[in-house]
Design a protein that fits this description.
Blueprint (H helix, E strand, L loop, with lengths): L10 E2 L2 E2 L23 E5 L5 E6 H10 L3 E6 L6 E5 L1 H18 L5 E6 L5 H16 L3 E7 L8 H14 L4 E10 L2 E8 L3 H33 L23
Parallel strand pairs: 3-6, 7-8
Antiparallel strand pairs: 1-2, 3-4, 5-6, 8-10, 9-10
């Protein structure tokens, strides 16, 4: 039986090989210290200065003397490029940058709203309110007009409805994709004028304003209760002495 073709993930004669085995994960970790198995490397100092091509033993000795790690930053170069650095600090800073990038990343979300061509006024206002909310949040909205039965022969009803909706929300969004027929449906895409990050910042600012207003109302109510409370001892009701059932017992 033929053995499956598989390349090991080891390094031979300074050349990195790639594993084609689908069962084995591909490591993205950088090689450090004793894991670097090449005769010589192009060494870069901790401050970015170029040291030159040195033997791997000398590079490891310099890393140990500086209390740093020898990290292979460019394994495909000839010879590989290694740098002296604090690898733990490097990984921590890289993780912080990746987390910050994910936090600032804006994901485009497409909401969908479905309408009928003969929708009544109340339902239209409700659907329009949802579209307004989505656009304020910085999301795109896909408007779908669903035709049934004989309505399929009256596409102008859906077209006029989409035009009306686009005009009603033109202050918040624009027509990104013009109305077009798609089988039994007619589709239009509205895009927000503001980006997702700007819309999110405005929502957070509005929440902060509302929280400040609620706190101010609570402070005003507390101050009013404190001002009307009796502060003079004479305003307080005198405490009554307890009357003993037995007159021989002194209070």
């Amino acid at each position: 039986m033929r053995r499956p073709f598989c390349l090991s993930g080891s390094r031979r004669d300074g050349v990195a090989t790639t594993s084609l085995d689908p069962g084995g994960p591909i490591s993205t970790e950088l090689r450090i210290n004793d894991r670097i198995r090449v005769p010589e490397v192009r060494l870069v100092g901790p401050n970015g200065e170029t040291v030159g091509i040195v033997r791997i033993d000398d590079a490891l000795r310099l890393a140990q003397e500086a209390d740093l790690d020898l990290v292979e930053v460019a394994p495909t170069a000839r010879p590989p490029v290694c740098k002296l650095m604090d690898y733990g600090k490097f990984k921590y800073e890289a993780a912080q940058k990746a987390r910050e990038a994910r936090r600032n990343q804006t994901n485009v979300i497409i909401k969908e709203m479905k309408l009928r061509p003969k929708i009544d006024a109340h339902d239209y206002e409700t659907k329009k309110g949802h579209v307004v909310r989505f656009l304020k949040q910085g999301d795109k909205v896909k408007i779908t007009i669903m035709f049934r039965g004989r309505e399929q022969h009256r596409p102008e009803l859906g077209f006029r409805l989409l035009q009306r909706l686009a005009q009603d929300v033109e202050e918040l969004g624009f027509v990104e994709s013009a109305p077009k027929q798609d089988g039994r449906n007619m589709i239009m895409v509205l895009g927000p004028h503001k980006k997702k990050a700007e819309a999110k910042a405005e929502v957070q600012a509005a929440k902060a304003v509302r929280a400040a207003e609620r706190q101010a109302e609570k402070d005003a109510e507390h101050a009013e209760r404190t001002a009307t409370a009796p502060t003079d001892p004479s305003d307080k009701k005198p405490r009554r002495r307890s009357e003993n059932l037995d007159p021989e017992i002194e209070a």
